[in-house]
Records
---
Amino acid sequence: MKTLAHAALALPTHISLAHGGGGQLTDDLIRDTILPRIGNDTLNELMDSAILDVPAGHRIAFSVDGYVVHPTCFPGGDVGRLAICGTVNDLAVVGGRPAGIALGVIAEEGCRRDLLERVLDSAGEAAREAGVFVVTGDTKVVGRGAGDGIYLTSAGVGFVPHGRNLRAARVQPGDAILINGPIADHGLSVMLAREMPELESAIESDAAPLNHLIEDLLSELRDDVVFLRDPTRSGLAGVGADLAVACGHRVVFEEERIPVRPSTRHAANLLGLDPLEVANEGKVVAVVRATASDHALAVWREHPRGREACLIGHVESVPAQMPPRCELFTRIGGRRLLAKPYGEQLPRIC
Amino acid sequence: MRLAEKIPLWLDLIAAVAERRDDTVRLMEVCGTHTMSIFRSGIPSLLPDNLKLLSGPGCPVCVTSQGDIDRILAVAQLPVVTCSYGDMLRVPGQDGSLESARAKGSDVCVVYSALDSVRMAQAQPTREFVFAAVGFETTAPATAAAVLEARRLKLRNWSVMCSHKRVVPALHALFAADTTRIDGILLPGHVSVILGSNVYRALPSLYDFPMVIAGFEDWQIVEAVARLMELAAGRQMVLENMYPEVVTPEGSIHAQQLLRVVFQLGDAEWRGLGNIPDSGLILAPAFDDFDAGRRYGVRPIEGREHPACRCGEIITGLVQPSDCKLFGTACTPVHPLGPCMVSSEGTCQAWFKYHRHEVAKREAAKL
């Protein structure tokens, strides 16, 4: 009886402001709720900073991102999984091997503890998938109404081996553009969960850590991989438009080659969205030398996150007097601009 | 034959007919979804130079008059929750937009259907909700259903700011004005699902050009354009329904009934077309209680458009976006000055988004 009563006291069902105060309750929350889910030797020391050994000859990649997705949980993931995958992928696309993650939790007063547990479970699972540790963290609680359940911030450090040089400036006409699978699942999973919660959607977010997939490609193809980018917010269109400007060439995607699952395409139509502009969290676009594209596809298709990898376009030189741009070769043989979306994606009227 | 093999044949047919003409062939679509589909699929890049696809008054946001937009913005200044379709959010009024009003503290909520706003009003009885109803006969039945639902629930905290419009009177006004020479019309799919194909039957012979009801897939549009070229070349001024799987001669009786119960016909102000008698759907007197204009005393506002904005002429096919000196300079999707640049179905936004380098190239070639 005594043990049960103690447990009930130690593990309240809702997060209160006191859990973020830095006192005994914060310690309890860290010990009982956080460490069992994402703990490891480094984190468990609860030092003010984690200390990482940098392998000789490596440079450091360093990235940070905030995660404020609404709803907190959606088919295929939640904010915890996103926070790990997003930062791991940001490190991986510049050639970094993720070495440690810092995770900041901002919970809203009244947030259910089981929601926090689920989010941390997901973060822990994603970190194990990526083979990276959360090495330091922070917990804050804001007043009711000042947040939306749980926000996370994750920063990450990655080690970039000597000689890796992934830059848009290296992209040349003739290069091939690949992607590791179907697009738009993440954005539509979240949009449907938000806008049509009554609909039981079969679309699952693709949120996944891609560092192993990327590492396989880089170690096999080395210099033949010239540029990597994860098409998150603003989607494939955003990556294409940015890349065109950054490399100064014409980036051409072929509509017919871009994989979109039928259910995802249907949902996009329903919401009036263009799958090319919708966010992904488990996809990476690679620009490789044309001669290496078959090899690259073979390497990716060996990997569970790259089974549906395919060639989706190529880089062309820009005709005289034309600015660099991204174009779509449509399935009926037309050509049109592919521009970056403007801001919030607005549903259409009819 | 497979579809993929048919498209080149249709394109060949279009090119052949265009080649026999020494002037420019002008076809008009009157549906925002067609506009989007045409540009998204790159159809303009496949057409001969002397074939122009004009976008008529088919984008609901674009044809909404400045006065109606300002009335909605006036409501948003009141202590109410203004519920709007997403496309309306950034349309500029005399003083800001719903989006900027929201940033300054107004309660503005994007909804996907009129009924969503009724549900919200039901769930939050202490707050007042106003639904900004715009659109043609496609969205009007949903507004009608919402009004009936609000009455059934005896809601006192929900009302509607109604600017619904009817497509057919606008077509008459546009064609009768005879300012735009048109060789054929691509009639909208969605509106026709509601209205049925019979409502257009008298139009082709009256105005002397062929009309085709078409679906929204890229191939359906190419097929319809090819058919229009063929009909125009043969001087066959007829109506053809190329979307019969969803468009019937009578349309949706249920939706039409909803419209008849909840609305009555009234004059409406259209951007570009002016006042058109009987082209508006206004709440029938039995539903006065749900009229937001009446409830909050928001009077009709004399709209003032941006003096250099040519959206009105663009909607009526008189000029193209590139003819407007604001296009792509002062007026862009990020800083829109006119509704055609705001709406995702607006002609200017489609041009800017999918076509602007082609515009630049042609302009450069002219110099």
Note: Chain B touches chain A through 46 residues (CB under 8 Å).
---
Amino acid sequence: MMDFIKELWLFMRVRKKFWLLPIFLMMALLGGLLVFAKGSAIAPFIYTMF
Amino acid sequence: MTVRILGVSAFYHDSAAALVVDGTVVAAAQEERFSRKKHDPRFPRLALEAVLSAGGIGLAEVDHVVFYDKPFLKFERLLETYLAFAPRGFRSFRMAVPVWLKEKLFQKALLKTELQKLDPGFDGTRLLFSEHHLSHAASAFFPSPFDQAVVLTMDGVGEWASTTAGLGHGRVLDIVREIHFPHSLGLLYSAFTYYTGFKVNSGEYKVMGLAPYGEARYLPLILEHLIDIKPDGSFRLNLDYFNYCTGLTMTNRRFDALFGGPPRHPDEPLTQRHMDLAASVQAVTEEVVLRLTRSLAKEYRQPNLCLAGGVALNCVANGKVLRDGGFKNIWVQPAAGDAGGALGAALAAYHGLCGGPRTPQPGDSMAGSYLGPDFSDEEIQRRLQAVGARFTILDEQTLIARTADALAAGRAVGWFQGRMEFGPRALGARSILGDARSPTMQRVLNLKVKYRESFRPFAPSVLREDVAEWFELDGDSPYMLVVADVVRRRRLALTDAQTSLFGIDKLNVPRSDIPAVTHIDYSARIQTVHRETNPRYHALLSEFKRLTGCPVLVNTSFNVRGEPIVGSPEDAFRCFMGTEIDVLAVGRAFLVKGEQDDLLRSDYKNTFERD
């Protein structure tokens, strides 16, 4: 995973697209929530977000 | 020191693997031929094993593995597109993003895991990524016979680019110009493929085949509303009419309103309107390609042009570029679609990253595109025996003589010989052959052998030395990627009643001495057969010519509708038993339908999902 984050950072640097960072972070957060949410107590929290 | 490079394309459509050793293309194959799933997008494990085995090496001996595109760049395009159109496209976003977050964004790790299954010691340092259109351009230039050339690639979309122009010189290849997504000639063609009721990414050939039945009545409408073509061939699409950026379809309601109705359902009959739509999008495509090639020819004053990318499979447009004369010589990569990206990625790494030298070969460096697996006589016999086939082993001369006799008698012949072709066309290694002179052959092959739409034309194989006698072409077209007309003296005059026929009714009117391969506009998608690259097929055509005076055969891929081209002797036997192919030649094994066990016949045509 560290490799992936490092490469993503390099990618943003080379492409000069740091503005993608907050989007990536949001996605990682939501993605993480969705994974955890399967059958867990976080599920209702996510549904209200949509 | 020997440099071995493996190219891989995967995860979208037409996965493939290619092995390049010291700049020589040793082997290349598509996964679908092994997995038996058409356009298989999965990691090409079987193809990879096959190309490594053809090279007699294991993955541990490979210096670099090169993937044909860059996943991060693609994801960037995806995100920026969704942002640009937000809040539209939420449904598509919701479907696409989880797939990316779960899988596609981690392609490097995925590739590493898959490659470690073949070589547990494989680490990421040997894994490289090429750009999608650089891979296409490399597949077009490096194997070409030219030392210098203009390189044009056109497809749906790669990372950002949908069209690129480049310059090749020796071992150096530079991309000098790009047109970016969402403006894409490939996607415009695919939009009409979708709208006329065919499958995107596979039905484009059908649209091209359908076009000659129609008139380009919608051309003014397309030029006025859908696309703005500049004099140099660059273009912009009017996205108001398309849905592919954010939706789950190619076109939208505004497109329907413009062309007078909803998209055709695949089961709906084809009407003159659909044929006119096909003719119109074909005309637009030709216009763009011709403007592009004319302006590039003028700007770079180069005699040579190389083409790749899915749009380069539009052999009708290629033929027009050739006849237009802007470039004296044209070379098209036979695997111009994404499968060829595997080969291009490997070649780009060899000549670019490794600085490997390049010596253009006369003809080209693709070995006739016969780059897939082959089977020894012993293996063929063993495999055929195992599936219960009844066959005779013939010597070379008798094999040629008996096959030519069968063809001259109007039989449909399965022809499985030597190394499998790389790319979408069957070129006389995995082919179904027939007599091009027969006025019923096209119908018989379409409806009883291939089980496909009756409007679809067949392509001719012709001896290279005789091509100018039969077609308005006097050059090489070894990969069936150039369309030219049948020469005038071989054409048959039509009666007034026949001339006035419309649409598919035109098909049954014989219009030349070789009606089975003459499309309704007298055109033919020509394969020139060369003794140097396929001696056995050349010998067969020569024998057929000796018997009949005609050096032309119908050559269609050895499969039924929806099936990948046969890859093994067993596949060939199954297809033979499930269709009305009369005779099958697998290597020197000769099979006649009447001699086979009837119990082995099967209802084959419904085995595969329709394309």
Note: The longest strand of chain B covers residues 161-169.
